[in-house]
Amino acid sequence: MFDRATDRWFFALTLTALLLGLGAWGQLPPGAQVPIHFNLHGVPDGWGSPAVAFLIMPGVAAAVWGLRRLLDASGPTASAADRERVARALDQIFLATAGLMTTAQLIIAAVAISDWRPAAAHLLLPLALVLFVAGRASFRLADPRDSQGASSSGALSTLRWATTAFSVLVFAFVAYQALGVGPLPPNLLLVGVGMLLVVTGNVMGKLRPHSLEGIRTRWTLAHDRVWDHTQRFGGKAQVAAGLVLIGLAWAPLPPAWHGPAVLAVVLASSGAAAVKSYWAWRKLPPESPEPGCRVPRDE
Length: 299
Description:
This protein has helices at 5-26, 50-71, 80-114, 118-142, 154-178, 188-204, 224-248, 258-282, and strands spanning 34-38, 44-48. The chain is mainly α. The chain has two domains: 1-184; 186-299, no CATH class. The protein has a two-stranded antiparallel ribbon. A hairpin with a 5-residue loop joins strand 1 and strand 2. The chain is globular. The two termini are 35 Å apart. The relative contact order is 0.12.
């Protein structure tokens, strides 16, 4: 079932989130309400039952894993080299998503148990690391084919550890709030979204025409050459947008403007990619198809 390195990393992240949630749930008294939403200042502003709080993130991560498996067979016919490039790009994007789900679970668990078991919040960070390493190691022992082989490319390995480091960094800030030291830094949203844009944008250029992934406009679907040009440009625009958000995190910007800033930067990068796809299509020879009529790349 878990026959790929990425699948085992997915399982390790999801299992970490699930066990942390169940452990925190066991520390709460009957009828307790758990914070499930936080404002831009890191203060809880939404509450729900422990079942919702502690099961939704592992559930979303499991759904993402299932979607990733379905995507393996959903793309158009392509060469083995193209399929491998798409698979690696999708692996990085979905592993980053799974890492975010685990981070969100850590945030919810830390804040939830801090009200009832303050001392237990100190244990969440080392527990998260132990569970993650143990989950990953157990599947390496169960299937030694994935040691440091082809499935562990340099880019993918870098992303794995970068995702883990990002999760630990975010949780360290959250633990400060949970332990009563202070609220989350208001620029955490900008840094987190910026890092995600940089990571995913870095692999956009490797994506090939796909039924769900990539920058899909009626012009990118008209010709693979347009698709390739747009994905490369869109990836660079996404990386630039991420760097802008990271830079804004240290600018004298009021916290109330952080959300609109994220929206504006993301829309600007997406709009630029859409315009690029149109101009790339306009530069095709006159006999090229109308938008939406896909033609494969030249061999």
